[in-house]
Amino acid sequence: MFRRKHHSSDHHENDQMRQKEKINELRVAMGQLSGRSLQFCTDTCLRRYLEARNWNVDKSKYMLQETLKWRSNYKPEEIRWHEVAHEGETGKLYRANFHDREGRLVLVLRPGKQNTSSHDNQLRHVVYLLENTILNLPEGQEQMVWLIDFTGWSLSNSVPIKTAREAAYILQNHYPERLSAAFLYNPPKIFETFWKIVKYFLDPKTFQKVKFVYLKNTESMELMQRFFDIDILPTEFGGKDNSPYDHEEFSRLMAKDDVKSAKLWGFDDTRSASVHPTVVAPESEPNS
What we know:
The protein is built from eleven helices and five strands; from the N terminus they run αααααββαβαβααβαα. It has helices at 2-30, 35-40, 43-52, 57-74, 81-84, 119-135, 161-174, 191-198, 204-209, 218-227, 247-265; strands at 93-99, 105-109, 144-149, 179-185, 210-213. It has a five-stranded mixed beta sheet, sandwiched between helices. β2, α6 (119-135) and β3 (144-149) form a beta-alpha-beta unit. α1 (2-30) crosses α4 (57-74) and α6 (119-135) packs parallel to α7 (161-174). The N and C termini lie far apart (56 Å). Residues 272-288 have low confidence and may be disordered. This is Patellin-3.
């Protein structure tokens, strides 16, 4: 028994050594980086890209280079809440104030509360919340969970296929290994038509993370209980918390996070939310 445990330990250490070698190999292959690209490409970042491409350094390098190009042009770290706050007024997408049982942060999506029609603004809203969730991940935690509530959803108010396809592309190619699981809660029968199209945009790894959950299905409810504390889970997902989404409170939180993000990325954030009267400015904090 001791030998088996020792062998298992050696195997684990060898795996870690090989992974570290691959990370170093990818870093060398990426060449000289500077500025935000250098800050972005941490060892854990390189590990995610390698995992997404089955530890193939060449494929991981190409994937990461495409992300760096995208980030250079799209500048996701510079999007500010007051620029996308109108997209979130109905609570169609927000970062929850609770974690799953593994400590992962949760994004709540309510596609039935769609309130806009701008493809570009909808994507910027999604990207902003992805960046914000990553900004707030607990130490040592790399992934998030999505909870998708289909109350009120129909084909007439669904996200356009073009937007869904591009959002899936951004998530898979520029935020690899960030999604742990996506729970599609109580989708209506008609959603099958939409899903037949959308699922072809998903790579196999992402597809396997999508879990359909139904209110009257015992296995579904057991799955939710394995992942979440029912006492803090919103009632829309079979939990006991009936607290409504508070847009003003969430806006205050996001405004504070914008300041934190600006400091993290090393630039002065001179764009003020005060010129946008529909957004609540952050509460003043006492001097430290």
